[in-house]
Specification:
Among the domains are: 81-197, Roll (Diaminopimelate Epimerase, Chain A, domain 1); 285-472, TIM Barrel (Alpha-Beta Barrel), CATH 3.20.20. 30% of the residues lie in helices and 20% in strands. The protein contains 18 helices and 25 strands. The strands form five sheets. A six-stranded mixed β-sheet has the order 3-2-7-23-24-25, covered by helices on one side. Helix 12 (392-398) packs across helix 16. The longest helix has 17 residues, at 204-220. The chain is globular and about 80 Å long. The two termini are 26 Å apart.
Length: 542
């Protein structure tokens, strides 16, 4: 078999041990696997006329970094609009909207994303502060959690939304005032869809190029793979097109959604879809939701938040969720359940425990987010073999150490002090997978690993950390995006290590991510990204 790629003068870092391998070079065969490790002389001899040879000049190479939770297609679409994530208060938002309105033609829609509900302070979340700016403008502004949005008066009018609605998603709501008039605040996917369905959509060509560009940017940041937590719209077709054209810059593991109301035929279809895909992507697993978000009052908590909210599950009948988890488990299909509140996490674990009584304990189920949980929940992850999928930058950027933020105020001191318990989960024996949840938070993996270590706001590292006792070590953070991600996918026999026979998905850095200070880590240069033995990013100095 021919040699596709040779890397020389490298320091090969093993995330299993945290030590460098004795070898300094590797060769990749035409099947995209590591064929050999050795010294520079031995490996250089394996190169043929068509082999790409790269002298890394002492760069540090790790297994390719994998984002454990992201939304590539919806992210590429949503982040195409006005970025509101930098807005700190209502005046910032108004100014940003006013600038954007001036660029619009008559009847054009305004799309925004990343809006932090903390900008409203003690005021209710709604479009009232922006009515004057958005007068006559159809606008759809996605809040940072992507579970809720603001729709302007004109957008609601075009969608025919003039009062409350009922939905299969129990926590979905068209929020209305005391007179029954919509405030513009739409909670959860079903409510947002009322407006989204009348808004203009990108062309297939635009969607394809936006996705391709987003994936190229991810590769440049050091990512070689991602666990995509949806298959909505034309996602699978877009992955297939890019894969066939050789333009899929990440290896993707895709989990389609299973929503409340899914019947037996729907579950059967999800099972039958498993394993389909292409060279660099495949459907593997099912994504479910057990609750919404704390910021919106749609999480499922064992005790209400300070507004008396977050008391209900996403599924009107949580037992229906438990039944479906059991059906998927018996079919050997791993589940990934969005569970943010303590009651939601507990119910997800209960469902897995019940499913395991029927056998098939090797199925690796996951719980996503796990923002606040009590002590008695922690050990159950390891006992049940459930993976903890965490996004530490959410804690860094959307909460504060003094608990002055919306998330913390809603929960109160006791529960806010149990924020994103990464350390406790690792110490309890759980496998912790790290990710960004992009577009909710930025995708650069070095920022994710840094946040897991310093737990400070990425825009102001001088601020105190939120729960520093929950920080991970540098090695634990690296494992969260290498070995843990491979294990979560059931691919530890072929991914997450630098060894012969393993996939040649690799990331090279100017220095070791283990010795780079956490606050400096996001700026560590990514010199080379390799996917399936092919270079997807190469810095000019390499």
């Amino acid at each position: 078999m021919r040699t596709r790629l040779v890397l020389l003068s490298a320091r090969l870092l093993d995330p299993g041990t945290g030590a460098f391998l004795p070898e300094t070079a590797l060769a990749v065969s035409d099947d995209g696997r590591i064929a050999a490790l050795g010294d520079d002389r031995e490996i250089r001899a394996l190169a043929g006329p068509a082999t790409t040879v790269v002298d890394l000049k002492g760069a540090v190479v790790t297994p390719g970094l994998v984002d454990g939770h992201l939304h590539p297609v919806s992210g590429a679409e949503l982040t195409h609009g006005l970025d509101l994530s930098y807005c700190a208060d209502l005046d910032d938002v108004r100014e940003a909207l006013a600038r954007e309105v001036r660029t619009l033609g008559r009847g054009d829609w305004l799309f925004g994303w990343g809006l932090d509900p903390n900008v409203f302070g003690d005021r209710p979340v709604g479009t009232a502060p922006f009515d004057a700016v958005l007068d006559g403008v159809p606008a759809f502004l996605l809040l940072f959690d992507a579970h809720s949005a603001l729709a302007s008066r004109r957008a609601l009018e075009l969608a025919g939304v003039d009062g409350p609605r009922t939905f299969d998603q129990a926590s979905a709501e068209v929020v209305c005032d005391a007179d029954g008039r919509p405030t513009g605040f739409l909670q959860e996917d079903a409510a947002c869809a009322l407006v989204e369905r009348v808004a203009p959509r990108p062309t297939p060509e635009e969607s394809r190029e936006r996705l391709a560009e987003a994936l190229r940017s991810m590769a440049a940041a050091g990512l070689t793979g991602g666990h995509a937590m949806d298959a909505n719209g034309e996602s699978l077709a877009l992955y297939g097109e890019l894969d066939a054209a050789g333009e899929l810059a990440l290896r993707l593991r895709v989990a389609p959604w299973c929503q409340p109301g899914t019947d037996a035929d729907g579950v059967r279809a999800l099972i039958e879809r498993q394993g389909t895909g292409g060279a660099l992507w495949r459907v593997a697993g099912v994504k479910l939701f057990m609750d919404g978000t704390i910021d919106n009052g749609t999480a499922w908590l064992e005790r209400p938040d300070c507004h008396g909210e977050s008391t209900h599950a996403f599924w009107p009948d949580p037992a229906a969720y438990t039944h479906i988890v059991g059906e998927l488990h018996r079919a050997g299909v791993p589940t990934a359940t969005h569970a943010i509140g303590d009651a939601a996490v507990r119910h997800a674990l209960d469902a897995v425990e019940k499913a395991r009584t029927t056998g098939g304990s090797e199925v690796r189920h996951r719980v996503e987010h796990i923002e606040t949980v009590p002590d008695d929940t922690l050990r159950r992850f390891a006992d049940l073999g459930v993976l903890a999928s965490m996004q530490p930058t959410h804690c860094c950027d959307f909460t504060r150490a003094d608990h002055s933020d919306n998330w913390s105020r809603r929960l109160g001191e006791e529960r806010a002090s149990r924020a994103w318990r990464c350390r406790d989960l690792v110490d309890s024996g759980a496998t912790v997978v790290l990710g960004s949840d992009w577009p909710i938070a930025p995708f650069p993996p070095l920022g994710v690993m840094a946040g897991a270590r310093h737990r400070r706001p990425s825009r102001d590292l001088g601020m105190p950390p939120h729960g520093p006792e929950q920080a991970l070590t540098a090695l634990e953070a690296l494992r969260g995006m290498t070995t843990a991600a491979a294990y979560a996918a059931g691919e530890e026999h072929e991914a997450g290590r630098i060894a012969p026979g393993f996939r040649a998905d690799l990331t090279a850095f100017a220095a070791s991510p283990l010795t780079t200070p956490a606050t400096d880590l996001p700026d560590l240069p990514v010199l080379l990204t390799v996917l399936d033995g092919r270079i997807t990013h190469r810095a000019t100095e390499v």
